[in-house]
């Protein structure tokens, strides 16, 4: 089937079976490799993208449901997003495989709670696994992005 | 205390340059193995055994199915030796007939279409005669009649000091415990994978996610029979490893290479999906320890006696080295005249167990530290006090019989942890909390330990690591070494060390891609050795380079970056080479006898004291970590922010090990909970901010006295947490993970025994 979406601000039309996973369409047809596959079953968040402002795991989303959707991947996060800077400042990306999904989850979190409490941060990111950081540097990065406090 | 403690927030204010790999990862541009663009790629799949050992009677490829568009590889197609090159050549690349565990590779398939590959798998039939009595438990294997290898023991080590039998007669207080740790999955978020492709010049290029490119190269040479100059191994951006990508990448690389040899020039991509990765790749060795401790009435240790056994699984792989680290760390950082540790790595029909952060030490340290708390209880002494009395001092004799020198901070780090965590205050507050009628019970527990960095004993000597520094005409300097960035920050730390030593800005120094066609063998990226051992070599190479530029190019004593570049340019113009090499030289006092386990096992130990505060729900028996203090003396923090990230990451893996991560086995000895829905690792919902305390005394073997820190944080959380749970619930917990089900059984058993 043919599906029309807006991806990172651009209108895109994709021809693919309706059951194709959004993740495969993004990584394959569209070459947006920032979304990663960590588990393929909605548990790790490495494939997270924003669909109409909500963070979703693209490995679980069939393309058929995406007609007319507005999708943002890591490639479409605006360059002046304070999260990009704060993740860099705080060394919040270690191996980096969780990082794109984590930044998108944090983007959705900050859109809802511009000044999140630690509990809100922990709740907001709980769908994204990171095995490297123990989350400490990530908490710091999200806090920095929300308060605008430059690091160090 | 001599030097003020630096807690997290202060520490970060120190100079921590940005990670050199930061931006590409943050923008999603770094290429992991699955992201690498390829033309005409074949996808690959592995056909595996299903029984827990046995014989493959027949492997049939359905004759009615059209196999022409497929590449098929079986054991008969292996041009070289059918064995993965490791300590022993016992593990086949592809099973020919006899196999030892479920999930062993029998054959390989490749096709350009993933769907077709799936279909084809249904047309392969395997007939196996299963092994009559597979074994899955350590003690069962030690007493089994039919064995996998003689006695089912891969390696049997003995660390023996003093006279335990005699000391036992004199001990005034004595405990005996049996403690168990389960397996643990590394769970790097990027599953394992490799790409094999023939270059135009006929060289077979293997690229993928790995820790040790030279292990892979050696394995490929042995299995393909190709000369090393016809093979090239390149590391792609690696999405976490933690030991899990130490040995198994050799297996996947051989498989991809064998397919490529038959694929007529097309690239082959072999990437595991999560379930396959969980089922077949090596995990942490399960362990069982019988510990006996004796002390006098004052609490001074009189003897430590441990029978330590780890489950090695069906092939030897890395078990001997895991075992030796476990044995050396078993007596902890304590002064004790009589020590006996017997260690055995046992053969079972599980898939082989392998390296995971800590490498044997988390298992034996868990046993000792939980036993120490039991001893404290028996002596009616606070656990911190018992440790205070026994921790090593300068001038003591270490458990392996060498003299403890200046670089010993066991006592200091304990005091630091106690202060930072408000130990006594919290302990008293928890007593009141538990006396009041709350829905939860609270406890505080600690563990004191030391972790040796680098290869054990003479390991570094045998490795004989080399690094190159290559200056270019434009003044840029490249570090050439085989050590890999896998998230731990090695790329940044090594560049920082070189830039520091060369007095150049970091932007002028680069770490070359880990590619065996270019980089020398500086040893594997394991055992917390990269920053300390390889960092030290890089520092030495930097000094050689400066010397060379001074002697041959007239570089002055102090110089600007532009002057440095100008000298490089002139030297290049006049045909002088700008490459220097540094090779490992062991410290002069590094004497180790691997037969008797005596001498100096590691060039440096980092010292640590970890304190956990937990809360257990009375109804559900779920445990929550309220606060966690991780205090360590690490010599020197080259990059404090990276060090902090390493420690936080390790502690959280340790929390998972202690509380949640439960590898379950099916009847064939394969991981049953092979999905992220049922193998549970800590999420942000479980983990609050941790308190990291660093002490830097500058006496380690690395640059400016740095010591390895990668593995250290894995050792302490499990015993500290279990000790805290024991205090909260007043029960003995003898195994991890301490899941609610286990705590429920233990509480019931305890109530039962009280009624009698
Ligand atoms: S790959 Fe989609 S949630 Fe893990
Ligand atoms: S940085 Fe490696 S998984 Fe998060």
From TrEMBL, chain A:
Keywords: 2Fe-2S, Iron, Iron-sulfur, Metal-binding, Oxidoreductase. Pfam families: Fer2 (PF00111), Fer2_2 (PF01799). Coiled coil: none annotated. Residues 1-77 form the 2Fe-2S ferredoxin-type domain. The keyword Amino-acid biosynthesis does not apply. It comes from the Bacteria. Gene3D superfamilies: 3.10.20.30, [2Fe-2S]-binding domain. The keyword Phosphoprotein does not apply. InterPro entries: 2Fe-2S-bd, 2Fe-2S-bd_dom_sf, 2Fe-2S_ferredoxin-like_sf, 2Fe-2S_ferredoxin-type, 2Fe2S_fd_BS, Beta-grasp_dom_sf, Diverse_Oxidoreductases. PANTHER family: OXIDOREDUCTASE WITH IRON-SULFUR SUBUNIT. This is (2Fe-2S)-binding protein. It comes from Acidithiobacillus sulfurivorans.
UniProtKB/TrEMBL annotation, chain B:
Signal peptide: none annotated. Gene3D superfamilies: Aldehyde oxidase/xanthine dehydrogenase, a/b hammerhead, Aldehyde oxidase/xanthine dehydrogenase, molybdopterin binding domain. It comes from the Bacteria. InterPro entries: Ald_Oxase/Xan_DH_a/b, Ald_Oxase/Xan_DH_a/b_sf, Ald_Oxase/xanthine_DH-like, AldOxase/xan_DH_MoCoBD1, AldOxase/xan_DH_MoCoBD2, AldOxase/xan_DH_Mopterin-bd_sf. Residues 27-132 form the Aldehyde oxidase/xanthine dehydrogenase a/b hammerhead domain. This is Xanthine dehydrogenase family protein. The lineage of its organism: Bacteria, Pseudomonadati, Pseudomonadota, Acidithiobacillia, Acidithiobacillales.
